[in-house]
Write a structure and sequence with these properties.
InterPro entries: HIT4. This protein has 265 residues and is α+β, with helices and mostly antiparallel strands. It has six helices and nine strands.
Length: 265
C-alpha cells in the first residue's frame, strides 16, 4: 500500500507541475514550435530561342513519310546553326537557303540497339535560290529524273524568327529561306504508290550558280500573307490563274474565302 501512495503522490506532483506551466501560459497549453517548411525550388521555365525551330522548319528531303515523325523522338539541338545566323555569327545578315535530310544510324539507346534517324541540316549561302529543281533517283530507278520543285509541291519558304511572328508578313524582310513541302500527309492514301515513292527518292539538285535572267522568265514567285504564308511559283505562260487558285483551295492550302484576295495580290 505504501508504494501505491507513493505513485499517487508522484502523479499529483506531476499534475501540479503541468497545471503551473499552463497557468504561466495564460491558461493555454504550451505549443510546440512547427519547423518552417522548406522553400520550393524555383521551377525551370524554358525560354524558346529565336531560331530554335529553324531546323524543324526545313523539310527533311528524301525521308520516308512514315519516318518523318521519328525525327522528333529526341530533343536535337542546333544551337551552333543558330549562333552562326545571329549577330556576330559567320552567316549573320546573309541570304541563306536551308534544307534538311536524315541519316539512319544504329545506336545504343537505353541499353538496346535501335535505328535512330539523325537529322542533318544543310545551309547554302547564296544571294539567290541555289535551285528550283529536285532530283529523283534510287537504286531501283534506271535514270535520274529532274523535275521542277513545284511538281513535288516543294518551294523555298521564308523562315520567320520567333520574335518576328507578330509582324505583318508583307512587311517582313527575312534572309532565311527553308525548303518547304505542302503535300498533305492525309492525302497520301489517295495517291498512287509510285507517286508516294517519288517523295522518298527526292534529293537536292544543284544547278550552276548564276543569277536568274528576268527578261525571258515568265515564272513569278508569290508569297501570300497567311499563317503559314503561301509561297509558290506561277508561270504566266503555262498556268491558268483560275485553275491554279482552285488547286490551292482543293489542296486546303488556300481558304475558299481568300480566293478573290489571292487573285489581286
Amino acid at each position: 500500500m505504501a508504494r501505491a501512495k507513493g505513485r499517487k503522490r508522484a502523479a499529483a506532483a506531476g499534475g501540479d507541475s503541468q497545471a503551473e506551466a499552463a497557468a504561466a501560459n495564460g491558461g493555454r497549453p504550451k505549443r510546440t514550435k512547427t519547423p518552417p517548411k522548406p522553400k520550393p525550388e524555383p521551377e525551370y521555365v524554358h525560354e524558346p530561342r529565336n531560331l530554335e525551330d529553324l531546323w524543324l522548319s526545313a523539310f527533311p528531303i528524301g525521308t520516308e513519310w512514315e519516318n518523318i515523325d521519328k525525327i522528333k523522338e529526341f530533343n536535337w539541338n542546333f544551337e551552333n546553326l543558330e549562333k552562326a545566323l545571329e549577330e556576330g555569327g559567320k552567316l549573320y545578315g546573309k541570304t541563306v537557303y536551308v534544307f534538311g535530310s536524315t541519316e539512319p544510324q544504329l545506336l545504343n539507346v537505353g541499353g538496346e540497339s535501335k535505328i535512330v534517324l539523325i537529322p542533318v541540316v544543310v545551309v547554302v549561302d547564296c544571294p539567290f535560290p541555289p535551285s528550283d529543281k529536285i532530283g529523283i533517283n534510287s537504286v531501283q530507278r534506271e535514270n535520274e529524273e529532274i523535275v521542277p520543285m513545284r511538281v513535288m509541291k516543294m518551294a523555298w519558304v521564308p523562315y520567320v524568327p520567333l520574335e518576328d511572328r507578330l509582324t505583318r508578313i508583307d512587311s517582313l524582310k527575312t534572309k532565311i529561306f527553308t525548303l518547304g513541302c505542302t503535300q498533305r500527309r492525309s492525302a497520301l492514301k489517295h495517291l498512287k504508290e509510285e507517286r508516294v515513292k517519288k517523295f522518298d527518292y527526292c534529293m537536292p539538285y544543284y544547278m550552276p550558280l548564276s543569277p536568274p535572267e528576268d527578261e525571258d522568265d515568265t515564272v513569278v514567285n508569290i508569297m501570300y500573307p497567311l499563317e503559314p504564308p503561301i509561297v509558290c511559283d506561277f508561270d504566266w505562260e503555262m498556268d491558268d490563274m483560275e485553275d491554279f487558285i482552285d488547286e490551292k483551295v482543293k489542296d486546303e492550302v488556300l481558304p475558299e474565302d481568300e480566293k478573290e484576295k489571292f487573285k489581286t495580290s
